[in-house]
Amino acid sequence: MELSGTGLVYAVLGLGALGAAVLPRIVARRPLSAPMIFLALGFAVFLLPFDLLPDLDPVGSGTTVQHLTEICVVVALMGAGLAINRPFGRRSWSTTWWLLGLAMPLTILATALAGWTLLGWAPAVALLVAAVLAPTDPVLAGEVRVGEPTDAQYDEDEVRFALTSEAGLNDGLAFPFVMAALALSAASLTGWSGSWLWHWALVEVLLRLAVGVAVGIVLGRLLGRLFFRARNESLRLSEHSEGFVALATAAVSYGLTELLHGYGFLAVFATAVTIRAAERPHGYHRVMHSFMDQIERLLTGALLFLVGGFVAQGGLSALTWRGALLAMLLLLVFRPLIGYLSQPPGTRAPSARLVTAVFGIRGIGSFFYLAYALGHGEFAVEAGQLWAVVTFTVVVSVFLHGVAAAPVVAWLDRWDRRRHLETEQP
């Protein structure tokens, strides 16, 4: 009996979709995560002797990888912005600002220096890998992100809020550092000149960040007014409970910002947070978030399945022990240490600061940035080696943080409840 390629594809897609629905509930509160299972399944399936399985080559299929991961990040950012209950503000988001303004650039600097000294990479390559690995992605460790939207403004604990808001913003803020690596690489090929630095600071940092934030806020306010306060009931979409509107909103925000040469990732998150603020207690936020969460789980499961297949087909063959050491230094030393020291000691308990620092999981955003950079510039290291280092970092992060998330956060929740009981006692 001949095996049908189409039938196999449908069967795998269907089983994957069912797994995306079932696995999060099965592994809840266990030292296991759905991303870990999808990675392992992809690895196992691609080891099977089936000629029907495709050859996964991110170097030759960079454009496809870029767009697939781009969609996944956009969906995740919209869902994260809608989930955050806390009102936006300088003080209420203070932990986020410390993580973005201090921890992120210092972690990039430390990783770049390690790549330069440990692997002997050129400064442009070292900066690229550091920038690519900068975005955090707590979506891949569901225990450490905020849940669905609620009526209460401050019901999420500081750890979950900090990690979710940090990931929502640093997916966009990593772009200037990637662009700096591209500019530095171009300058090294044409002859050293510092002229690129001014263009980078004015255009890639100030202008494109400003465009992303402005489009996100303006579009969020317009759509928020349309969704909740439009005079025409047909335009007041909150009355119709159609979750796919969130996907349309994310696409409009991202596409419009990219047309205006701003940072689309930043705009999508800003749009979601602004829409949430338009009518915070409204149940429509839960409808939109639920729809985006379902799409996000499908896309993430599919992508991680392919990552596992890439590893099974020898995707880490170009990895050296120095590249593996760089990944471990980032995950076990640089991020935990810098993340912990970057948070003011008087703001939260040391345990909460430590958990926030440790759970800076790397994920889908890193694949997008690497595919984007390799498609827009030339670097003095083979692309396969860069893919191996980044893939190894993400895989280790998924398993390391996936195993630790449930028990650590459960311990933190028990500690918080005990502390609250102690403060309530006379």
From TrEMBL:
**Chief location category:** membrane
What InterPro entries is this protein classified in? Cation/H_exchanger_TM, Na+/solute_symporter_sf
| Localization, UniProt | Cell membrane
Q: What Gene Ontology terms describe where this protein resides (cellular component)?
A: plasma membrane
Give the bilayer topology. Multi-pass membrane protein
Q: What keywords tag this UniProt record? A: Antiport, Cell membrane, Ion transport, Membrane, Transmembrane, Transmembrane helix, Transport
**One term of GO molecular function:** antiporter activity
| Domain (Cation/H+ exchanger transmembrane) ranges | 21-411
Q: Which segments cross the bilayer?
A: 6-27, 34-53, 65-85, 97-119, 173-198, 205-228, 260-278, 298-318, 324-342, 354-374, 386-412
The processes (GO biological process) annotated in the record are: proton transmembrane transport
Superkingdom of the organism of origin: Bacteria
Q: What is this protein called?
A: Sodium/hydrogen exchanger
